[in-house]
Design a protein that fits this description.
Layout (H helix, E strand, L loop, with lengths): L1 E5 L8 H7 L1 H6 L3 E5 L5 H11 L5 E5 L6 H7 L2 E4 L5 H4 L4 H8 L4 E4 L2 H9 L4 E4 L24 H16 L2
Parallel strand pairs: 1-2, 1-4, 2-3, 4-5, 5-6
């Protein structure tokens, strides 16, 4: 099972703390983490993984151009959106969740108001966790389409843009 994270790995997101809290689950399950992006907490994340003996389960790719992200989304079994419960994240709209869902990837999301609100629209696509990841989710490799996400697909958007282009081109 590959749990993927695409985005900034800044200290404010508390990703080393997330790894620390989930060390036992990571060690006891055949799960790998794919980290795509950069940020000032990567070294601390590596240190936590090495300290707890799961460094080989961490794959750090670095920051990539947007166009290359699709191939990494295809490898992921789950998308991770870990945000601590602080004002700025509690009252935000984490686009990362919608991007994972649009790619057909179920999302593991931390317990914050913003994630609970998104879950209301996509109840089957988001599993909210408190501090620890749910063990049952660590063994699943399901990739699926979620109701309502078709309007975010590249195919749908391309068709819509083509309709607009053809309609406006005739004027």
């Amino acid at each position: 099972v590959v749990i993927g994270y695409i985005g900034n790995m800044s200290w404010a997101r508390e990703l080393p703390e997330f790894l620390e809290a989930n060390a036992t689950e990571i060690l006891e399950n055949s799960v790998k983490f794919l980290w795509v992006g950069d940020g000032d907490s990567i070294e601390a994340m590596r240190a936590v993984a090495e300290q707890h003996g799961f460094g080989e389960k961490m794959i750090f790719v670095g920051k990539l151009p947007q166009v290359e992200l699709v191939k990494f989304l295809q490898v992921m079994d789950r998308g991770l959106c870990h945000l601590p419960d602080i004002f700025v994240y509690r009252n935000s709209f984490p686009l990362k969740v919608v991007e994972y869902l649009a790619a057909g990837r179920p999302v593991l999301a931390s317990e914050i108001k913003a994630h609970r609100e998104i879950k209301k629209s996509f109840p089957t696509g988001i599993k909210i966790y408190q501090k620890k990841l749910p063990r049952a989710e660590l063994g699943k490799t399901t990739k699926q389409k979620f109701a309502g996400m078709e309007k975010f697909s590249m195919e749908f958007l391309a068709e819509e843009y083509l309709k607009i282009y053809l309609r406006e081109g005739r004027k």
